[in-house]
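for the writeup, i need someone to sanity check this before i put it in the appendix. the sequnce is what the collaborator sent (i think, or maybe the updated version? ugh). structure was predicted straight from it, no edits. if anything looks off just tell me and ill rerun, i have time this weekend
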Amino acid sequence: MSDEIVSRLELAKAIAVEAGQLTLDHFQHDSLEVIRKSDNSPVTIADREAEQLLRQRITAAFPGDGILGEEFGEEPGSSAYRWILDPIDGTKSFISGVPLFGTLVGVEQENQCEIGVIYVPGLDEGIFAARGHGAWYFRSEVEPTAARVSKRRDLSDSVFLTSEVGLFEGRGADEAYRRLERAAYITRTWGDCYGYLLVAVGRAEVMVDATMNVWDAAPLQPILEEAGGTFTDWQGEPTIYGAEGVATNGLVMEEVLAITRQFPKTS
């Protein structure tokens, strides 16, 4: 691993935890103000404070790197690296007092995401990866351990997760959800980044989202691939820019894609 990747991975890990812990200052507080953005999605002071912290830490360490974040847009850089940030992935869980939300940090080099970090502060656990160097699960002060996807080979034996069932209907693909639910052994909505963490560590086999932003997806591809799994769009293309997501343990991927490929995006 190059020194440039090592230094950025170390910073990504540290600031994901720092920003995630900051969000807990506002978590489960009755006084938390929730604002609806133009797309009707919620945002809070915790989202904004956490992203500001992430940006400050990145700019101080790597002033030439670009930054793209959900709350404050894009700052172009002069280097080959761009950081992609989601300070709270799962804001709906956050404002509901449910701890299944996380801070996401991805680092692109020449348009390929090389580094990914998910940190779930409410559970104090997470996962990080750099291409070619594995994915690593961590919790509290315990030494990180290698993360690997499960070895289940059939969708009928698998746990299928999604963030929000209604988003399938929103893109005219509610039948895709029903087929996946019928085909899987267990279906749950342990969603957002927590669901992708579950696939990467082998607690679930499939996570499908009908719609995603790039800051939702950026860290997922290196994490899933380094854990031995897959992250693609609904057509099977490995990308963080598909505006949708399919994560699998690799062994059930074709069964899942046989369903999702029948429902291409119409716009």
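The chain is about 30% helix and 25% strand. The chain has two domains: 3-146, 155-260.
thx in advance!!
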